Amino acid sequence: MNYTGNPKEMPHKFALSGRNSGTITGVLDVSEFDNATIDLTTTLGRMIIKGRDLKVKNLNLEKGETDIEGNVDSIVYASKQTSESIFKRLFK
Length: 92
Description:
92 residues, mainly beta, 1 helix, 6 strands, 5% helix
């Protein structure tokens, strides 16, 4: 995939093969990862992958693509966080 437009408009796709390898497109950032969790920011929001022996492979943020390996147990799309602080929301 050779996407040359605005990174926030990249198409997002996730393909998992056999619960142990996958390809993700529309990746804007990898917030954090370890053997149990991969936390990504995608064009559709935050994506959290949990499992065992997880690895981020072939990360290319210019193309918005990454491959993952490991034993995937769950995939969750988290709600987009508001940029407004908790104090502003409390004292409206």
